[in-house]
Amino acid sequence: MPHDAELFTRFEVQESPPDLLITNYSMLEYMMMRPIERTIFDRTRAWLDAFPHQRILVVLDEAHLYRGAQGAEVGLLLRRLRERLGIGPDRFQVICATASFSAEGQQTAGQFGAQLAGVPEETFVPITGTLALRQPQAPGNDADATPLGSIDLSQFYAADPAQQSGAVAPFLRARGFAAAEDTGIALHNALATFAPLNLLINETMKAALPLADLGGIIFPGVDKAKADHAVDSLLALGSRARLSQDEPSLLPCRIHSFFRGLPGLWVCMDADCAELAPDERGGPAGKLYAQPRERCPCGAQVLEYFTCRHCGTSYARAYTTDVNNPLYVWADPGERLQTGAGMFEPIHALDLLLEAPPHPERGRAVDYDLRTGRLNLDQPSDRSRIVYLRPEADMTADDDEEARAEPGEFAPCGCCGKVHVFGRTSVQDHQTKGDQPFQALLSTQIRIQPPGPQPATEFAPLRGRKVLIFSDSRQVAARLAPTLQAYSLKDSIRALLPVGYRMLAQDPQFGPSISLNQSFFFAVVIAAHRFGVRVRPEFEQGESMPVVTGVVPGHVPAGAELIRLITAPCPVNLMKAIVEVIQDNGLGLEPLAVASLRETTSLTAQLMALPSLPGLAESVDSKLAVARAWLRSWSRGPRIWFSDMPPQWWATEVRPHGSGEFKPMERVVTSREARRVFKRDWLPRLLATFTETLADGGRRLLAQHISLEIGGNWERCTTCRSVHRPIPNVLRCIDCGEATIEAFDPATDNVFTARRGFYREPVAEGATISAFFRVNADMPSRRCSSKTPGRLSVLASS
Q1: What distance in Å separates the CA atoms of residue 452 and residue 429, rounded to the nearest whole number?
Q2: 7-24 burial by CB neighbour count: b if 16+ within 10 A, else e?
Q3: Are strands 302-308 and 314-320 parallel, antiparallel or unpaired?
Q4: What string of H, E and C letters represents the secondary structure of 429-490?
């Protein structure tokens, strides 16, 4: 468009070269190579030829980053740009902007700029700023810290302005200032001349400081806990103190948190390692290390630490030249090497099981020399231990899945008998990888982030909480955005579904007939309304979420509104997330000891009327427990069919099953007579009650006959770590068959909390917490190149 001040599209830029072009070095390089952008440089060169007094101005932001190989590439790019435009160094003006040069770097800034831009060093003029230090500044004392330490920050961050004002009133009185209608103005008046705050501003203006050090700097001589609390309050109040919303606060600060993923874990092979405290010795291995090392100070070899992702059994990863008959093991595989004698390949991985397997055939016991790594010495040394190698005969996984592990790897696990997906080994390292740790870090950061003073709205329920993530490539950002949404959606559903289901079960109209089929989506909707959560899955064409009307947010819909909501269709992607939360064998409701499957209330009497199973199910409670174990087996295998599922999910998401016989039930019904009665009298009735027969002869379990049992008693297996309901007269784990089950309290058990607590805690607290957090992630820019750093906007809904 003629005389248009802004050029929004690439086509406009190509037709009319702009006066100001904002780009990055990758895109600039592409533009110089592509014929379609040739006109930009040709017309700019013609303009420079026509006006010989004009210059090209190049501003390099964050110039300190352009060092090493990257700096060389950018330097050559700038020289090519100058050559393309046909100008000399005198008409090529460069501004290097940075706030990260050290004092030494500032002395050589001209030399750095000349080498980077290819212009004379003497043309660079260092321009430095002057810090706007505040006065008066002075360390605080106990009298200053006391009113700050008494501030209730939870009240200060409340949405109600009266609560915010009440939280800071004692501090304002201590400073001799009265409360004002605008809390920000009142704080500005009280803090503008507060010497400890000015010291905090000045010190953090000069350099970034660890938060842990601020208490001692601002309030020296004051009790550490009290000083830290006072600093926390000062940071909160200073960030809010402003005369108007258009002005910056007195303390416009930012906090940098650094998180480093683990490269792995390494472990001393001596279970009695002298580097451990005496009460910590005697476990599967010795001291853990976060970095690889050849040897522990106690003298034993150090190997990388692996565990089974299902049961947590300890392994060590070693390497050897012969996995079938290993003599020596090393900590490193070596490298591929070409020599005059030929090609030498890296040596092979060998997993060493560090705990005795429950059955001898699941591992070959060998002596391991702790000093040398030698196996099966003729004369064992004074420092040796027993480790276990993969058995020579192939093993079948407990779920009958074919194992596809490499030689030397345990597949299945020597303890729980399980494999990973596609038959791969479940024994894995501890390197931080994948998107789920990133999602956990991000959601935790949002959860602890203080809100703004503004009240929550439907569009912005988190009162200003947000995160911007910058990845090093567009592909990573494009993959991460939907992945974060999927993980976050499941986290929200995991907390909402049990709460909403309990609400429906207590409703006098719907409670008696509640089932998973009609209530799985319904429960999420009403719980989301009760707690103010915006559930926004990715919608297919024509889909939407139902809106609760006529019920004040924070209250539970009832009566006619429930009837209207129950007919609303569930979005496909939301249904998939809900079904996975119900049936997931790792982070589902049962593995987290939150809820399990049961029959609907209308079918309980039929199960109680089933004939007795001799020695197993002769009482009402034991009959119900066995029947529910059968439902559990079906949901973990063929899975459950919901009437709203898309037809294409049949035989993919839900598989047909014919007989109703499952391997876990063989561990429940063990005696010959009980099996005979179960197969003859129980199975036909269970199949007729809970399943439907299809044209191809297969059967599927129907969600309309199933409900949820929330809370109650739980058992877990100390061998395979699975969690399930107690079954009277069954003393073995129904998943692995070991006689190692025990009752436990999931809220207080230390082992269970360490393994599952991060995911269970929000679910267990779902009935009492006042806010949930859900991430909505999106890629705001769709037109950056594949090498352009991607920006990922992450907003959270509460």
Answers
A1: 41
A2: beeeeebbebbeeeeeee
A3: antiparallel
A4: CCCCCCCHHHHHHHHHHHHHCCCCCCCCCCCCCCCCCEEEEECCCHHHHHHHHHHHHHHHHH
Over residues 158-199, the pLDDT tens digits come to 888 889 999 999 999 999 998 888 899 999 999 999 999 999
What span, in angstroms and rounded, lies between the C-alpha atoms of 634 and 641? 11
CA–CA gap between residue 582 and residue 636 (Å, rounded) = 10
Gyration radius (Cα) of the chain, Å: 33
How far is it, in rounded angstroms, from Cα 420 to Cα 310? 9
Residues in Cβ contact with 431 at an 8 Å cutoff, skipping those fewer than 6 apart:
261, 262, 263, 264
Residue 148 phi/psi, 5-degree rounding, is: -70, -40
Q: How far apart are CA 113 and CA 95, in angstroms?
A: 8
pLDDT digits (tens, 9 = 90+) for 475-532: 777 777 788 888 888 888 998 999 999 999 888 888 888 999 988 898 999 998 888 7
Copy the structure tokens of residue 93.
């003006």
- Where would I find the H helices in 378-473? 436-448
Give the H/E segment covering residue 340.
none
pLDDT single digits (tens) 31-72: 899 898 899 999 999 999 999 999 999 999 988 888 888 899
Name 177's Cβ contacts closer than 8 Å, sequence gap at least 6: 186, 189, 190
The answer to whether the beta carbons of residues 172 and 182 sit under 8 Å apart is: no
600 sits in the region (left: phi over 0; alpha: psi -120 to 50; else beta) called beta
Interhelix angle 183-191/161-174, rounded to 10 degrees, is 20
Cα separation, 724 vs 744, in Å, equals 11
330 forms beta bridges with 319
CA distances to 402, 478, 790, 792 from 781, rounded to whole Å, are 44, 10, 8, 9
Residue with tokens 């910058």: 470
CA distance 391 to 193: 75
- pLDDT surpassing 80 at residue 644: yes
CA angle (83 as vertex; 77, 88 as ends), nearest 5: 115
Q: Are 683 and 322 in contact (CB under 8 A)?
A: no
650 three-class SS: strand
Alpha-carbon distance 739 to 298, whole Å?
37
Say if CB 312 and CB 325 are below 8 A apart: no
Task: Find where tokens 């507060």 sit.
Answer: 194
Using DSSP bridges, classify how beta strands 314-320 and 384-389 pair: parallel, antiparallel or unpaired: unpaired
Q: Residue 362: how many CB atoms within 10 A of its CB?
A: 20
Half-sphere exposure of 211 (CA within 13 A, CB side): 15
pTM of the full structure: 0.77
Cβ within 8 Å of residue 128, ≥6 positions away: 106
Query: The tokens 């034991």 sit on which residue?
Result: 622
